[in-house]
Amino acid sequence: MLNKAILMGRLTRDPEMRRTQSNTAVASFTLAIDRDRKDQNGNKQTDFIDCVAWGRQAEFVCQWFTKGMLAIVCGRIQSRNWEDKNGSKRTSIEINCDEISFGETKKSREQGGYGSYDSGSQIRPEGNGYRPQAAPSFDLPVGNSDFAELADDDSDVPF
Fold first, then answer.
1. Per the CATH hierarchy, to which homologous superfamily does domain 5-35+44-123 belong?
2. Could you give the angle at the alpha carbon of 94 between the alpha carbons of 83 and 26, nearest 5°?
3. How far apart are CA 33 and CA 36, in angstroms?
């Protein structure tokens, strides 16, 4: 089965860190995600999605993310059943984070710009040590490319 969610939104509050009985870090935060369409009155609609990060990701989120920051989350949707203080059964739907990335650079955030994306700033749970990597560069040297133009291209689409 496939269960994959990719979300981009702003944190509604600072992440909240807790620890399990086995001392595993757990961070909870909520993303505010605007919908593409407006309602009947022309108002923007926003969804508030609860997210949970575990272990090193939880520590990373709590250290580097604050209220209002743009975050990109990849993970899986999960439901959780629990009882409230009154003994009523409740269900929560949340995203269990596999990857968390910055959605904007620090520079653009400080300048008040939106929409910048820093793809090199993410953390994944695999491996023992996280090593930040620079964003990939797609600048190819001129004349040193494996790509070449087709000389006899007749521009006909084959279907």
1. Nucleic acid-binding proteins (2.40.50.140)
2. 80
3. 10
100 burial type by CB count under 10 A (0-12 exposed, 13-18 middle, 19+ buried): buried
pLDDT tens by residue, 78-109: 999 989 999 999 999 999 999 999 998 877 77
CA distance 54 to 25: 6
Extract long-range pairs of 17-22: CB within 8 Å, 24+ residues apart. 17/58, 17/59, 17/62
State both tokens at 75: 């993970």
Extents of the domains making up the chain: 5-35+44-123
Q: What is the pLDDT of residues 11-31, one digit of tens each?
A: 999 999 999 999 999 999 999
CA 59 remoteness from chain centre:
15
pTM of the model: 0.66
User: Which amino acid makes up residue 114?
Assistant: Y
Two structure tokens written together for 24: 């595993």
Single-letter code of the amino acid located at 88:
S
Name 101's bridge partners.
72, 122
